[in-house]
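Researcher: Checking consistency across runs. Here is HNH endonuclease again:
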Amino acid sequence: MAGRIRRQLLASKLDAVAQQAQARQATPICPLCERPIPPSQADAHHLVPRSKGGRHTALLHRICHRQIHALLTEAELARDHCTVEALKAHPGVAAFVRWVRTKPPEFIERTRKSQRLKD
């Protein structure tokens, strides 16, 4: 009897470890800041804005997505920054990414529109 119980306990522990590993693999990674995206912080970003005919999206952290739209207009996104690599090359986005990489994945903060877009 003790052998059967031990086998059941071992099997349940192995199942729990396998489920944890599967959950870690299922967590998407933000292509901008390269941190895991919790389900509550996931936003789909149209690489080319829908108003400019875009269809393809990239899954980003909500804070990363908001910062992109705080720094760049839809016309700029469609014309010059329609890939993740182009977004990373923008000086304002690059500075933001360097800062946010040090934060935990669940981190959220109010995003402020750039003064250039306010005017």
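Researcher: Does this match what you'd expect to see?
Model: One thing to look at in this run: Residues 28-118 form one domain.
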